[in-house]
Amino acid sequence: MNLSRYHKPYFKLRAILSRTYSQPALLEQNEYTETPEYPPILDMSLKARKLREREMVYEKIKNVKTVEEKQIALNMPRYYGWQCVMLHEKKIPYNALPMVQSYTRSHFRTVEKLPDIYNDTNLTASEIVKEIKGHIEDAINFEIEGIEYNQEISNAHSEKSQEEDAQAKILVKQINRIIMNSLTDKVPHILSAQVDYDPRHEAFWFVGGVDVPLKVINWRKMNRLPKDRHEEPLDRPVQYLGNPFLTVRSHLPLRPIIPYSEADNPEFKVKRFTYRPETAGYTRDHRHGTNIPGYWPGDRDEFGLMSFHGRGHILDRNPSFGMDDNEEALHCQAMTSSFGWLLAQANYQGFTTYNDLTYPLVTQTVITNGQLWSFYVYQLNTITNHNDAIDVNTKHNICFGTKPLKLYESIENGKVKGLNEDVLKMLVQFYMNSPEEREHELKPFLGDDEQVVADIEDDNKRCWLENRYKYLVSNRPKHFLKPEVYMWEKIYKIYFQTRFFERKVRPFELGIDPYKRRLDEHLPPYIPKVLRPYPRHKKKFESTYYPDV
User: Fold this and answer.
1) How far apart (Å, rounded) are the C-alpha atoms in residues 316 and 518?
2) Mean confidence (pLDDT) of the chain
3) What pTM did the predictor assign?
4) What is the structure's pLDDT at 3?
5) Per-position b or e across 289-314, b if 16+ CB within 10 A of its CB
6) β-strands 194-197, 397-401: how paired?
7) Do residues 251 and 302 touch, judged by C-beta distance below 8 A?
8) Pairing between β-strand 303-310 and β-strand 361-368 as defined by DSSP bridges
9) pLDDT score, position 321
């Protein structure tokens, strides 16, 4: 019979007494200093301890070297993904502007002309408009009136909405081709710019200061948390999904619209939206948080110049909403799409929702149906909006936008009537807005030698991280279904507890929340004996390379 487990205190004491110390090391240590050194006095309350734990996680994510590993680290706390508030580009509820501004920390200003930074290109843009005016009229006439396309209709939106977006997409491609061809020999950055068609834009971040659901309040009461913590605000994970017609991106970022030092100007402050997102008409979904700007990490052209979006969803809105709310819906679409695209780009520069930007990013957004065009310029100054930073962070983003402007009046007898050269000039000026080199470091939170997974020399680690990252951003379902509490279990085991004689094997019976399972809490792939290193190797499972977060 093994009695060692009954004598653990004795063996532990014997190990302590038999421990030897190095005498020279003790002599070298200086016991006295010129000024007294005191240990830090820490607040040992539960709230302060939890804050220090979160700050340690933020610092660990900040110190992760590569872009892909940072994205994996953001999803580490949830094996089955986060219960995200879904912001779709083409699904905008009634009166959504207050919530969108609060969630993106965006100050919006309606303008009739572009900001002053575009004044340098006024004369050149006017000359180019005269050159391409005839080509633009021919493209409008041919694509809208001269040809009929067979468009596949889905159930996501109405037929009219999809037809309008399909027609606008084709026209945008032609106008983009005409303008880029005319500017190639006049503006250097256009020649090297990259154009993406139907790119995938996704962005993930946390929003704090939101009212707590009743279920969470009841859970806190049941677990006897202090009364002052029953209604403590939560961090809400937010996921944006967008699909623009076309994007243009460059190797260098655009110039800031306003100085970065003015990002904390009190005039830009946005009123906080504390109500639950369900009250504004938004839904939630379980998924992994993804930040995708339309290209993979490591691409040379990693800064967006401009993006084109459709406005067919306006046709699906209830007529009782009115024209003013439809216009606000366009502003919401512009702010969410601009913020989402820039946030994904910022994540590729090494910043995350926990580690804020050190410099601003700018993009240009166009929303059109072919005839009506809205122009927006968005400057991203901050991306931290979680509970621990929402009251401390004084920076806000800013968006300048125009009302819908008509590019032309009508098409009669195969000719475009009333082409508005001022609208076309604004579009040309967007293309002529030249990116510039920055004097500061663009990737301060990434490694020196390893910034993307492709830079890792270890073959096993590089391949494992790449496969894990791509599987994560694909948001495919897990091998096993997500855990579920069936209705009969709620009735007989939770509400009334009439099956107490059965063996407790289900997670809710064992006090386990399966949705809080970590991403790395799984069994690695098994290595068959035949494939293990020769001659003998006791390693039964493959190595994993999750970031230490």
Assistant:
1) 40
2) 89
3) 0.89
4) 42
5) bbbbbbbbbeeebbbbbbbbbbbbbb
6) unpaired
7) yes
8) parallel
9) 92
